[in-house]
């Protein structure tokens, strides 16, 4: 019998690996519905769906390894990052999904709310929060929507050598800002941005990507803390925020 490996587990969802199969358990059935629909639409490699019986979605494991893990150096080559950029561009150029994405005004309200929480609990120096709040403003502008993954973390993009073998975890897929995907993938790995954009091509806005680094790190800090993760671990969200202070 294959061993059961807990990949991630918190109060909202859990992912288990059993042999060459991943079991995703989610209390909100809408997440699996979006994931299944998105994987059926996107023109990029995704894992095979083995079966779905709410609240469990079973998918096949992808060959290769993830681009990396937040807080650790990426094991992937520059060529792999460039290949990832090309695949993401193909996604962003695809026809939009028919369901709505996040509204700009909701994102702005969330940023205000989370910055207030960070200041109230003094988890970072106030000047770090204020400076990153200023930087984040550049992300809060109207954009032409693209088909975005919505949670394009390093651990969600798999490569084998210089080939992208698949992208997992599509439950946040929606129309949205293409720069958001690029920012989430390079969060904490700024040194890989040039290679990623070499494959992505024209149209990327580095200032907006940096703004999303700040916004994402600010708004996710409370959720991470409340779900057993540490945003203050080396190389993670709080280090991303502190690095912005060095940018001048």
Automatic annotation (TrEMBL):
Domain Aminoglycoside phosphotransferase: 41-212
A Pfam family that the UniProt record links to this protein: APH
Spans traversing the lipid bilayer: none
Name of this protein: Phosphotransferase family protein
Organism: Brachybacterium tyrofermentans
């Amino acid at each position: 019998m294959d061993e059961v490996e807990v990949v991630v587990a918190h109060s909202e969802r859990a992912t288990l690996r059993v042999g060459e199969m991943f079991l995703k358990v989610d209390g909100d059935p809408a997440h699996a519905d979006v994931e299944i629909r998105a994987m059926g639409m996107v023109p990029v490699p995704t894992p095979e769906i083995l079966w779905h019986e709410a609240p469990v979605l079973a998918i096949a494991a992808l060959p290769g390894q993830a681009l990396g893990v937040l807080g650790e150096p990426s094991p992937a080559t520059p060529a792999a990052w460039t290949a990832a950029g090309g695949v993401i561009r193909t996604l962003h150029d695809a026809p939009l999904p028919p369901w709505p994405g996040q509204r700009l005004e909701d994102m702005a309200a969330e940023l205000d709310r989370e910055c207030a929480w960070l200041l109230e609990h003094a988890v970072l120096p106030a000047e770090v929060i204020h400076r990153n709040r200023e930087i984040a403003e550049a992300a809060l502008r109207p954009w032409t929507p693209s088909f975005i993954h919505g949670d394009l973390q390093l651990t969600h993009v798999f490569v084998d050598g210089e080939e992208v073998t698949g992208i997992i975890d599509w439950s946040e897929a929606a129309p949205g800002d293409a720069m958001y995907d690029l920012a989430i993938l390079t969060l904490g790995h700024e040194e890989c941005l040039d290679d990623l954009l070499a494959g992505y091509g024209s149209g990327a806005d580095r200032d907006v990507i940096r703004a999303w680094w700040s916004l994402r790190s600010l708004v996710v800090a409370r959720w991470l803390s409340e779900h057993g993760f540490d945003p203050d671990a080396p190389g993670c969200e709080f280090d991303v925020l502190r690095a912005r202070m060095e940018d001048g």
